[in-house]
Amino acid sequence: MKRKRYLYAGLIGTSLVILFLLSFHITEKILTDKNGAVQNAFRENSKRVSIDGVERLVGNNTDILLKLKRGSTFLETKNLKAEEISNKISGKLTLSKIKNYYKTQDYKFMGSEGNKIVFEKNGKYTPGHFYLGANPQGYIAIFKCNSEGDLYIENINSDTSNINIHDLPKKDQEYLRKFAYEYKSKSEAMDELMSMGS
Which range marks the domain in which residue 84 is found? Predict the structure, then answer.
């Protein structure tokens, strides 16, 4: 009697192993063509869909939209391909790595749909505009806002004055620290800077 139980248990176990191997073999045949190339659409696009916490790979042709806004007004939208940032991220491009990369630049992840990933950044400054402010040494300079919403000095020699912020009235110092003086052209900013020096 015991011998029959072991025999039946062995047959059932062997049957399950054979059934598993057979199903694995059939699945592999369905997903592989004659040349051995995988026909899975996700692999052709070099991306995988996230399933319950599994990492999502992002294809090089995925669009990344960077939207810069000030208040409720969108100032600029920059569209790039994932491959453009692949050299800035180590390893394979994944959605979480891209999110972390743009988080360090103050972008907020808004979502992804299909072949697009969207980020937004609330900018204080308008791209292409010029601002008067103080450089780290305390001298007044003309700053330009780039497409990312960040300020920089285009030409340190010609755009930095010899006027120290501490030589100005307190109200002007406060405005300069906040970059509150905004101009559409560099010449307007230069005229204002010259008037501060006189």
Answer: 43-122
pLDDT recorded at residue 55: 67
40-51 average pLDDT score: 42
pLDDT confidence bin for 39, thresholds 50/70/90: very low
Domain end position, chosen among 64, 88, 122: 122
Residue 76 falls inside a structural domain: yes
Tokens coding 130: 């010029």
Residue 38 domain-assigned (yes or no): no
Long-range contact pairs involving 77-83 (C-beta distance under 8 Å, separation at least 24): 78/147, 78/148, 82/58, 82/117
Tell me the DSSP string of 108-121.
EEEEEETTEEEEEE
Q: Are residues 138 and 191 in the same domain?
A: yes
The size of the chain, in residues, is: 198
Contact (CB, 8 A) for 165 and 140: yes
Helix (H) or strand (E) holding 18: helix 2-31
The tens digit of pLDDT for each residue in 151-172 reads 999 998 999 999 999 999 999 8
Place of tokens 């790595």: 97
Which phi and psi (to 5°) does residue 176 adopt? -70, -35
Tokens 């920059």, located at residue: 78
**Residue 29 vs residue 146, higher pLDDT:** 146
Q: What's the CA gap between 130 and 39, in Å, rounded? A: 53
pLDDT higher than 60, residue 181: yes
Same domain, yes or no: 2 and 28:
yes
